[in-house]
Amino acid sequence: MSEFNIDLEAIQRLTAGAVGPRGQRVFYVQIRRGNRLISLTAEKEQVRALADAVSRLLDSLAEKNPRLTTSDDMLITDMSLEEPIEPEFRIGQMGLGYDAERDMVILLVQSVADEDDEPLRARFSASRPQMRALSNHAAQVVAAGRPICGNCGRPIDPSGHFCPQRNGHGPSYSA
What we know:
By secondary structure, the protein is α/β, with parallel strands linked by helices. Helices cover 21% and strands 30% of the residues.
């Protein structure tokens, strides 16, 4: 048996998205290969970290091997989540790798550890253009959230914000 509960080669679609109002959004990473649609629940910071890590990896690959075609040559227009969104598991850890022989980026995902069960593991291989599109789109999804307070770095709710840096003085900031 494979060490992965889910192992999909050459996926056809990879995206990230969020469902719900700002401040209450639930984030997902979604993968499709053929008729198999896999949705994984993620934290906002995991989606942000994935976008950053993919961008750094692809930039590093291009720097090391300038003969690689640009990862921006694939126009992907629809990066929205597909219905139904039925998560397989909540992401605990992620890792990235690159298979130079096949020119594929490998995304490794492990579920949140449960006291009673072994964590689930998944491996997905995607093209560099797919991963670049994911990185760009995921960064936009994360940025579409609540604005961040310039004083304390916490999100500002639509109803206002109490900033601890102002020590209770001054108005609450609203978006």
